[in-house]
Amino acid sequence: MENYNDDIRAGEIPENPGDTDNYDMKAIQWFPGHMAKTRRAIAANLKLVDAAAELLDARVPLSSRNPEIDRILGSKPRIVILNKCDLADNNATQAWVSWFRKKGVTAIAVDCKSGKGLNRLMPVLKEDVLSELIAKRERSGMAGAPIRLMILGIPNVGKSSLINRLAGSKRTKVEDRPGVTRVKQWVRLRDNTELLDMPGVLWPKFEDQNAAVRLAFTGAISDDILDTETIAMKLLSFLGRSYPGSLTERYKITPEEGDTGLSLLYKVGKKRGMVVSGGEIDTERAAVTVLDEFRSGRLGRITLEMPPEED
Ligand code: G4P
Cα(136)–Cα(232) distance, rounded to whole angstroms? Predict the structure, then answer.
C-alpha cells in the first residue's frame, strides 16, 4: 500500500474528543522490582552470548522498544529485527531500516509467521554485526567457535515465533510474566550458531501514553488498559487520517473532514449491520471487529509510526 502518510510522527497520535489520559496499566504488571530482576537476568545471560537480537514490531518500532534497551545492552553487538513486516507498510519499513542504519544499528525486516527475510539474519550477523569478532577469532585460531545469540523483546513481539523458526521446531511458548524463569537451553542452528532458548522478555514503554496506545492497537498490551471502544476509536481516527483507503476498501466507508473516531465507529457498525434492539449501533461489536481486522492484517499493511523527523 502506498498511502502511508509522511506526517505520522513518533510521539504524535490523533486526538479524539472524550479521550482520557487515565490509562490503567493493569494488563502487564512490571513493578520496579521485576524490572531490576529482569535487568539482572538479561545482564547475566548477555555475558554468555556474542550478540543480542532486539526484536521490534515493524508497525511500531519505537513504541515496541524497551525504554532501557541501550543501557541494558551497553556495548554488546546487536541487531534489530523488525518483525511482523507482513503487517507493516513496506515503504515505512524501509524508512525504519534506514533510520536505524543512520544511528549505526543494523536492522533487518522479517516475518516470523512465514519465515520471510529470516535467511538474511545469520549472514548479516556474521558479515556486519560480528565481523570484528569473527576476524579476531580467525587471527587467534578460534574460527570454529560457535556464534551465540540471545533474543530480546517485549511480550507478543514474536520472540517464540522467531526461536521456533530458527530452531525449526515448535518449542514452549516463552513465559511473559516478569520474574518467571525457565531452564536455560542452547539450541544449535545451522551455520555454527547457537541460540539461547530463553528469550529476554522486556517491559514495554509504559511511561509514554502514545506508545502505550499504539501497543494497545497491535494487541501487545492487553485491551484491558483502555476499553475496547476507546482503542478502536483512536485507531479509526488514525486510519481515517493516514490510511483512509484502507477503511474505504474494507468497510466501504469514506472518512470525511470532521469525522471522529466515534463517527467512524458508527459508520463501520452501520455498514456491517451491527445494531442492537431499538436500532442503535452496537459500537462494542464494531470495535472488536475493527481491532481484530487491523491486528490480523485484513485492513492492509499499516505502520503506526514513522521515524522521528529531527533525526
Ligand atoms: P512472544 O514470544 O514475543 O510473546 O510472541 P509470539 O512468538 O508468541 O508471537 C505473538 C503473536 O504474534 C502470535 O500470534 C504469533 O503467531 C504472531 N506473530 C509472530 N511473528 C509474526 C509475524 O512476523 N507476522 C505475523 N502476522 N504474526 C506474527 P497469536 O495470535 O498469539 O498466536 P498464533 O496466531 O500463532 O496462534
Answer: 52
